[in-house]
Amino acid sequence: MIFLTSPPSQSVAVPSPGRVGSPMAVPTTSDSATLLAERRATLVRIYESHFARVVRYIGIRIGDFSEAEDLTSEVFIRALRSLDSYRETGAPMEAWVFRIAHNMVVDHLRRKDRRPIPAELDEAHSVPSSEDPERDAERREEAQRLHDAMRHLTEAQKQVLSLRFGGEMSSEEVAQVLGKKAGAVRTMQNAAIQKLRNILDKQGKSGGSR
Amino acid sequence: MAGPGNMATEIDRILDDCLTRITRGESVADCLSRYPQYATQLGPRLQTAVMLRDAYAFVPGPAAKERGRQHLQAALQSLDREEASSRTRRRDPLSFLAGNLRWVAAATATLVIVFLGGGSTLAASQSAIPGDGLYPIKRATEQFRLVLPRSTEGRASLHLVYAERRAQEIGELAERGDVGRLEVTGKELQAHLSAAADLTMDLAGSTAIGELRSRLEASAGRALVGVQARLGTSPASSHGAVIAIFQEVGTAYGVAVERFADAGPDGVSAGTHGTVQLLATYTGRRDSVLPPGVDNLLVHIERIEARLAATDGDRWVVVAQGPQALDVSRLTHADQFLGERGLEPGTYSRIRLTISGTTVVTGRLSQAVTVPTSVVTLTRPFQVRANALTVILLDLDTPRSLREPVSGRYSLAPEISVLSRGPSNRAAQDSAGDAMNNQGPKPRSRVQFEGDIESVADQSMTVLGKSIALAPGTILETSVQAGRSVIVEAEPQPDGGFLASAITLKPERPAADQPRQRPSVELTGVAEVPTQDIWIVGGREVRVTPETRLEGIPAPGARVHVKGFIEPDGGIVAVSINLVGPETPAGDGRSREPSAAQSTPLPATPAPVTPSPTPPPPPVLSPMPSPTPSPQPEAIRVVGTIQLILGLRWQVGGRNIRLSSQTVVEGVPAVGLQAEVVGSAEPDGTIIAASIRVY
């Protein structure tokens, strides 16, 4: 079937350079410089406040907290160099930084040609030590079993848990990082924890209550 | 009692609140004290959450943070230096001169000599060649002009001019037999061409590239002709050196031409082609893009061509080649990229689509759609200009295109509007071309690509032949690897490129039906459910799979209508089972097996959405012991897979379950999970659940 609609009566202006979409004034050089400076300052603040969280998030995903420290530094360098591609989407810049961290994890694991299975925890750092060595050993064993159980989660579930517990993010913040709705994130984390629970129960180990 | 769906949401919310508290250090007991009614469900999960919290309580050492801080600060300082240097070059050429004392001295000398000698000195210097007394003035003047504030294009042009001057000087030197200065001048010519090519990288994608390239090619021609001409008049003793320098000059110009070409739009020879980008769009009402009951429409496009009106005869040229599926359901929020090609500039009169097939998806079923013709031709002229981008949008009017099913099959009579935007080259605009081309809607902020990743570079990947830039903020739901089938959401860029905002794995789609291989069948009768997988309907064994669509709540003993297909072994696999009415005293076992000519082809294998990794156990039916005979409904216990949740009506292990306000639900119910139901059976077989425990 051949069909043609008559064109609309008014032509549409060619998109102005610099921005596709609704026309807007091209920012002046000084506006751009100020904005860039502000974003850099924000990124530095995020580094100071979120360094540990990003390390934990990456460490959980790749199974190596020592390497995660170096990768975290790379995350912020990459973010700094890409500030000109940062877009205000309503989500805080922290979400953008974690997205970069996620992409770096993906790249890292791909380069390492490993499945995203957490390796054994670094005994020196994984579990805060107490004054009870026996209890510390129990907790390390618990942590290792938990890591093994994490293998059975989907990639999205691991992401959610890593961001919740490693990144110390709320479900709303996790949703902003993953580009999902908060309700979906809550459902995913519930299912993920339940699944972990089932696996651990089958292994005959239940978490200790506090 | 809230419905199961609401309860699940409530538990999600409560768990989320508890997780937040636990990550902040609260204990499980504290959380449970806030929600005592959910203690049974929450307790185990919160204990697991505590394990997660403790396991991931890693604290980076201060040294690691300090190292990262230093790296970040070093990067900041490096960026500051680069930007300061850039600003200095733009705004304060004299400070640049401060770093080039030789040329400062020469420029100063030039100014002094010119002042003393007047303008004639400057003019005379222009014809000087290396070795002449005024040559330094000539070079000083050139350098002075280069450092004056000017555009990137301006500086590139100057370098091309000076490169041609060096070529002229080479000719003069060759004629004089001044071999010593030939090599130095040759290297300076190469330096100018290299500088011009470096500057074109900053102009990549712009129309200035084409003009500069034209200038370069013309300059190369003049330079090489001039040097070659002097070869004949050069002393024989310098022939070898002159020939060598001639070859070096030729090579230098050739390299420069290639670098200029690389900076053109998408590597197409700048100045000779324009770019046509094809997008599918939908400009109608979102809620009417697909008719009720239809979840998706996939139009499989084999090829898209455009007809060029050429003086030597009109011809069809391919714009997009290769099978790809137009996913109509996604068009409501993003245009879909169909292809892009560099085309000869000119007027194109028509667009032709070759459609290899069309599929409509309803629920989990897909079936082929009747399409009267596989070739759709659209008469819509548009212009293509050199170094310019023209965007062609194909707007599929699905409400008018997709017709109601006849004999169970939809038909598609494509009604497509062709809209366009462009060209993007302001310098090349003309009123006629504008009127022809600029009749498209405002560009959307999202374009979708669906295809295989063809190649991956450092910061980009290629899908459907189009390079898509990757940014650190791109959401990756799958790793970027060549060969992976992906859906990419991208933002169009001013230069016609795209920046990926999200990359996801392409979902598997159900294959279109294969007619005639599996005859369809319909039958109506009383349903008996000995197992959840096998029903007996009208005396015929019917296999029920996870993909079987149950409409209404067909209860065992009720009258149902089954649609399905016949397996090679003669068994019937149910595609859908509909409740027709209550049980009739005698099942009529009526069935209809249309002849092969009338059967409606159905998918051979309905696509599994959530395939079970292991076969679920058959439902366990065990009547609860009753101490005294009583007319009360029989107590019953069912253990099986949750197959359906419709508000208060569930299906577990093939049994219909109804919840009441007294039903106690333990666990988070979801289709696919195992559950144990204890309740009482109604005469129609429905179980009124007293308790449900979800595993």
Order of helices and strands of chain A: HHHHHHH
| Overall average residue pLDDT of chain B | 74
The largest β sheet of chain A comes out as: none
- How are the strands of the largest sheet of chain B arranged? 12-13-14-17-16
Overall geometry of chain A: globular
Largest sheet: number of strands, sense, barrel closure of chain B: 5 strands, mixed, barrel
**Secondary-structure class of chain A:** mainly alpha
Low-confidence stretches of chain A: 1-28, 114-128, 206-210
Number of strands of chain B: 29
Summarize the structure.
The complex is a heterodimer of chains A (210) and B (695). With 210 residues, chain A is mainly alpha-helical.
Describe this protein's structure:
The complex is a heterodimer of chains A (210) and B (695). Chain A is an all-alpha fold. Chain A has seven helices and no strands. Chain A has helices at 29-62, 65-81, 93-112, 133-150, 155-166, 171-178, 182-203. Chain A is globular. The model of chain A is unreliable at 1-28, 114-128 and 206-210 (pLDDT under 50). Chain B has 695 residues and is of the alpha+beta class. The model of chain B is unreliable at 93-104, 113-118, 265-271, 425-435, 513-517 and 583-632 (pLDDT under 50). The radius of gyration of chain B is 38 Å and the shape is elongated. In chain B, helix 11 runs antiparallel to helix 12. In chain B, strands 12-13-14-17-16 form a five-stranded mixed barrel. In chain B, strands 2, 3, 5, 6 and 7 form a five-stranded antiparallel beta sheet that branches. A five-stranded mixed beta barrel of chain B has the order 18-19-20-22-21. At the A-B interface, helix 1, helix 2, helix 3, helix 4 and helix 5 of A face helix 1, helix 3, helix 4, strand 7 and strand 11 of B.
Label this structure with key terms:
heterodimer; A: 210 residues; mainly alpha; 7 helices; disordered N terminus; disordered C terminus; B: 695 residues; alpha+beta; five-stranded mixed β-barrel; five-stranded antiparallel sheet; 14 helices; 33% strand
